Amino acid sequence: MGSIAPSPAEIDASVVKITRSTNLRDVPLPGSPEELSHSYCTDHMVTVRWTAGNGWETPEVRPFENLSVPPTASCLHYATECFEGMKVYRGYDGKLRLFRPDCNGERLVSSAQRTSLPAFKFEELKVLIAKLMQIDGPRWLPKDQPGRFLYLRPAMIGNGPHLGVQTPKEALLFIIAVPWPDPSKKKPEQAGGQHGLKLLASHPDSIRAWPGGFGYAKLGANYGPSLVAHGKAQAIGFDQVLWLFGEDRQVTEAGASNFFVVWENKQSGKLELVTAPLENQLILPGVTRRSVLELARTRLNQSCGKLAPVEVVERDFTIGDVHEAWKEGRIVEAFVCGTAYFVTPVKLIRNDDVDMNMLDAGAERAGYAAQIKSWLEAIMFGKDGAEAHEWGYVIEGESQK
Q1: 168 φψ region: left (φ > 0), alpha (ψ -120 to 50), beta (else)
Q2: What 3-state DSSP class applies to 350?
Q3: Is the dihedral of CA 358, 364, 367, 368 positive or negative?
Q4: Per-residue pLDDT at 349
Q5: Between 101-114 and 123-140, two packed helices, what is the crossing angle to 10 degrees?
Q6: C-beta contacts of 270-275 below 8 A and 24+ residues apart
């Protein structure tokens, strides 16, 4: 009998090679140019190499440095690249937490498979992040400064030297951590401040995603082509593009965020929290989106303070539906959510030559976004009795060095 070839190795985050940096970087102050640059990373990074023949190699926590990628790498030519957006939070109880990291791990694996990159056991992602934060967490998120966070960017690229249209034979998973401006600390006149975002509805000749495509995966290929429209929107004073799809102009996403509206149903008169569905795979299945829906279904199905109950609805709706509800005074509020913008109100939507003010009609009844945001913050930062919530993954074993 012939010998059976060994299976390619899986990622094993319990065995990690650690090389500590001997040249520690200055930790930037909140609001500093370094923080605002979105490019000033912490002292260390995680890398895990994969090859088609042997599978995943031993993960490494190593000093942050630039990657070496051959000019023939498939990520540069064929968009074999995917990524995640996460945050690590310093809680008011002194603990470091991730928010629902297995959801991000699952989505990263799904995105990787959609762009021909290798899969891995998604549960290992949070353990790799924990290894990184055990080293960088104490300096970059000190215990005496609760309420702060770092942005995390797990990513995977096809980095082998093989030019040609083919499935990548080599790949690299890496994780970096970046100090990030807190949108809640921005001045009111800035984008995402207390007055909310301004959205510009996309034109029919510009489409972000389509059925059978990859709008549901977090791929760089989703973002590059959309930046032209984003840049044009910003140039005329808008924060994000509200992406529409199809002849009936269905509302899908707002920039890199999921979009929600609270309105009165025209037929029943009941209050609804409405967002686009996932079935047609046009939108990203956001982790914050998923959490907003679950909290709304379990906590806003009855009165909450001054807030009346709402019914949660995931369905197709059009910009025409939004316009009609706005004209009839049925809109209570609109907001976007995602890791970067968190939960942020929308103050205005421009569709063609019509500016729809989202703050006027339901101002007295609004507050759903703020309430959901406060619930999420309590879980993320371990406060208001949410220290042991199942969505918060506590990172233990921080380095004392």
Answers
A1: beta
A2: strand
A3: negative
A4: 97
A5: 120
A6: 270/311, 271/308, 271/309, 271/310, 271/311, 271/332, 272/310, 272/311, 272/312, 272/313, 273/300, 273/310, 273/311, 273/312, 273/313, 273/368, 274/313, 274/314, 274/315, 274/317, 275/313, 275/314
Torsional class of 277: left (φ above 0), alpha (ψ -120 to 50), beta (otherwise): beta
Three-state SS string over 317-334 comes to CEHHHHHHHHHCCCEEEE
Helix axes 101-114, 287-299, angle to 10 degrees: 140
**Unique residue bearing structure tokens 């992040």:** 129
SS3 content of the chain, % helix, strand, coil (to 5): 25, 30, 50
Strands 197-201 and 240-245 come out as parallel
Task: Give me the domains of the chain, ranges plus CATH numbers.
Answer: 17-181 (3.30.470.10), 197-366 (3.20.10.10)
CA distance 75 to 160: 9
What's the confidence (pLDDT) of residue 334? 96
Name beta bridge partners: 311: 272
User: Two tokens at 260?
Assistant: 């929600």
State residue 131's pLDDT score. 98
Backbone CA torsion sign across 197, 201, 202, 203: negative
User: Token pair for residue 391?
Assistant: 């969505």
CA-angle at 261, arms to 259 and 265, nearest 5°: 145
3-state class (DSSP) for residue 103: helix
Q: How confident is the model at residue 193 (pLDDT cuts 50, 70, 90)?
A: very low
Mean per-residue pLDDT for 139-156? 96
DSSP notation for 360-390: TTTTTT--HHHHHHHHHHHHHHT-TT-TT-T
> Which residues are CB-neighbours of 224 under 8 A, at least 6 positions away?
none
Concatenated DSSP letters for 14-38? Answer: TS-EE---SSPPPPPPTT-HHHHTT
Average pLDDT of the chain is 92
Q: How far apart are CA 45 and CA 177, in angstroms?
A: 7
How far is the CA of 42 from the CAs of 34, 62, 131, 146, 390, in angstroms? 11, 11, 14, 18, 28
Is 47 in contact with 174 (CB distance < 8 Å)? yes
Provide the whole-model pTM: 0.94
